[in-house]
Amino acid sequence: MKHTPLYNEHKKLGARMVEFGGWEMPVLYTGVIDEHKTVRTAAGIFDVSHMGEFEFKGKDALSFVQYLTTNDISKLSDNQAVYSLLCSEQGTLVDDIIVYRFNPEHILFVVNASNIDKDWAWVTSHKKGDVKITNKSGDFALIALQGPKAAEVLKKLSTSPYSPGVDGIDSIKTFHMSHATVAGVKGTLLARTGYTGEDGFEIFCPPEKAPNIWQALIETGKPFGLKPAGLGARDTLRLEMRYSLYGHEITDKTNALEAGLGWVVKLSKDCDFIGKKALEKIKADGLKRKCVGFKMIDSGIPREGYKIFQFIDPTNQRTNEPTHEIGFVCSGTMSPSLGIAIGTGYVPAENSQMETKIFIDIRGNKRLAEIVGAPFYKK
Amino acid sequence: MIFPDDIKYTKEHEWVKVNGNIATIGITDYAQEQLGDIVYVELPDDNEIVTKGDAFGVVESVKSVSDVNAPVSGKVVEKNDPLKDNPETINEDPYNEGWICRLEMSDKGDLGDLMNAEEYEAFVSEEKE
Q1: What is the C-alpha separation between A358 and A321, in angstroms, rounded?
Q2: Distance, CA of A19 to CA of B48 (rounded, Å)
Q3: What is the pTM assigned to this prediction?
């Protein structure tokens, strides 16, 4: 199994390690619920160095990235980032990514760890124009500092961003970034991005310097209540926000629109992109199924792969009526912030309205749940 | 980690405390630690007849689902209902307040297959490796 540059830090902290996409990663340090609540109320740091980074350089970098991804990267200002998708010609998901635009001739993708090889083959096999693509996944460690106290911690850490137009941490707006010196480490990239629903930063740094920044964050963050947080909390935090996770809500068998990601599919942008034709047709034909969020009304916790049922006559809400299978669960957990069980799943479009009652088959018992809007957790 | 020596243990990490014909059952300190924060417990039904090895209860953490298997055969005579509202009791006190249910044993011979504290501790340290 592969180890990130922070592996020894996790060991020192007594983390419980698990396999994730070929990497040995910390799933928790003290406990998922404690780490989750720490991120919601103070700040947490996550090692996400396993994620991949691809760099696009050259005079056609922007037009090539526009062709590869569904969002409109031409609308970004320099030093701005955006959530986007890599879709297949059929409109299904190759991966979901963050695109960081330094300028039109220098763009960076952050891709899912488990998809690095697949994405690399995908991106390089579609190469067009004057662009040099480099797999920089081994050149960066990545630490996500997330939580309402994140900015305060960074300020205490003698962080100085120095990209043009940036004057101090507060001037880096959400989904913008800057080159920076963090805790004395030069050559880091500081991006105000994350996957938790909280304010926060992702710190890209040279792998050999990652332990210095990690330790400095723990030391400086202590008075603010900062703690390290593992993949367990990362998953519950993202699910409370209804953020998709590759392999769960989105796969190579789900299309971008039924996954609820139409907001990052810019069919109107003035260029072709992979999957555009298919997605236009899917949109014109109407969705057959949709990914929805639901909360449990009965007891029990929904889990990935559980079946979803509904009354044969949905207008009849009596619980003793027979039910039939309509879909499946993608993700489910007990929400640490809300104290209720929540989940996501695919159901037919005609059954996807809010407040629709559905049943989750939990070990042979059909338990009542209700479709709700996104996100589950609101501030 | 605690391994009290007045109880018996299974390879699936349940414990059994015997008092006459009644077996009190729970999950071990090692099991609760492995699971992490327990957020949901499904208890067996009253008077349910269970056979040794049956999955007759469920303990869930934030991340995972774990069956509770009957270490002995018998009939459910009591269960720890407060766990439904306070499942974290199992994390906090797995051998006392965190008990799951009591069985009236149908065959005390079932106890012969269980491990004592010393054997279980050795079993756990092997499993950890």
Answers
A1: 12
A2: 38
A3: 0.94
Chain B CB contacts of A33 below 8 Å: 37, 39, 62
Residue of A nearest to B32 (CA): A31
Distance CA B114, CA A285 (A): 62
Best residue in B30, B39, B86, B129 for a mutation probing chain A (most A CBs within 10 Å)? B39
CB B95 within 8 A of CB B2: yes
Question: How much is the ipTM here?
Answer: 0.90
The answer to whether domain B8-108 has CATH 2.40.50.100 is yes
Greatest CA span in chain B, whole angstroms? Answer: 39
Cβ-Cβ contacts under 8 Å, A28 against chain B: 36
A303 touches chain B (CB under 8 A): yes
Instruction: Compute the distance between CA of residue A159 and CA of residue A149 in angstroms, rounded to an integer.
Output: 15
Give chain A's domains with CATH numbers.
7-50+139-240 (3.30.1360.120), 52-135 (3.30.70.1400), 288-372 (2.40.30.110)
pLDDT tens track, chain A, 379 positions: 999 999 999 999 999 999 998 999 999 999 999 999 999 999 999 999 999 999 999 999 999 999 999 999 999 999 999 999 999 999 999 999 999 999 999 999 999 999 999 999 999 999 999 999 999 999 999 999 999 999 999 999 978 888 888 888 999 999 999 999 999 999 999 999 999 999 999 999 999 999 999 999 999 999 999 999 999 999 999 999 999 999 999 999 999 999 999 999 999 999 999 999 999 999 999 999 999 999 999 999 999 999 999 887 766 655 556 689 999 999 999 999 999 999 999 999 999 999 999 999 999 999 999 999 999 999 8
**Measured between CA atoms, how close is A30 to chain B, in angstroms?**
9
Q: Give the helix/strand (H/E) hosting A54.
A: strand A52-57
Would you give the DSSP letter of residue A68?
Answer: H
Distance from CA of B87 to the nearest CA of A (A): 12
